[in-house]
Fold this protein.
Amino acid sequence: MDPKEATKEQNLTRDQENTQFSSRDRAVESATESVMTVENLNMYYGSFKALQDVSMVVKRNMVTALIGPSGCGKSTFIRSLNRMHEIVPGARVEGKVLLDDEDIYASDVDPVRVRRKVGMVFQKPNPFPRMSIYDNVVAGIKLGRKRKKSEMDEIVEKTLTQAALWDEVKDKLKDGGTALSGGQQQRLCIARTLAVEPEVILMDEPASALDPVSTQKIEDAMEELKKRYSVVIVTHNMQQAARISDYTGFFYIEHMGDPGRLWEFDDTTKMFSAPDRKETEDYVTGRFG
Ligand SMILES: Nc1ncnc2c1ncn2[C@@H]1O[C@H](COP(=O)(O)OP(=O)(O)OP(=O)(O)O)[C@@H](O)[C@H]1O
Ligand SMILES: [Mg+2]
């Protein structure tokens, strides 16, 4: 990634973490309720239409996997869920994206507030350089109200535990975040995202650059995460999608040059055993893509 883009991402990550820690326990809320609703979304890069007419719900305390061949708009779509595409010049959205019934694209909505509620973990781990593991985790919340050291310690332990990293780093919290392995850095970034207690966590191929052990740890963390958060994850790994998600959306382009569409969306079990559409079946069984 170009260093300018990396800095932009880091600033955005900082923005999304600049918030108050809320003690609200979301796990008590209904498991079948929708946290986000997307209605008739079109997305463009300049005059190029990348996505057409996508409607989908994100269920609370569930994991939603997004799958599909390369170039069919999965990253484009996931970025629309927290207005992250706005850092791409010329990118624009038509349609509605509701978070808890509020349209995140309404003119009076602050994108920074949206990104606090809808956090994002990127494909490439991006811990803040020259910052300790501890400081990386609390980077966002430090910008909010002043907290006692004991409260910060608690947040660090809790989020690193949720991200399945605590045992590996508890004795070296003062070490630099970038001194960790790639897989550990990614889990650190997950902890950093969790520290500000978003409602939704977006992950765009978070494990694609990781070794199998780290990938397994991230998958383990997912079970824990969905008790408190709603997760949307893009993955090219079909076994991973089948293992960790409750719902699956398949994005597909029928004819070259067409925009991507959400071809099928359903319970993961159904999508992987008896999908309605042939293309979905071909894709999940590895016949193409
Ligand atoms: N910044 C951009 N500017 C212009 N076009 C873009 C940009 N980002 C993506 N696109 C185009 O939008 C379409 C969808 O791309 P996107 O990255 O969302 O696909 P994807 O499903 O995430 O693919 P992959 O699985 O390879 O990550 C592609 O045709 C791509 O070339
Ligand atoms: Mg992508």
About this structure: The radius of gyration is 18 Å. Residues 7 and 138 are 19 Å apart (CA to CA). The first strand starts at residue 34 and ends at 45. DSSP finds eleven helices and ten strands in the chain.
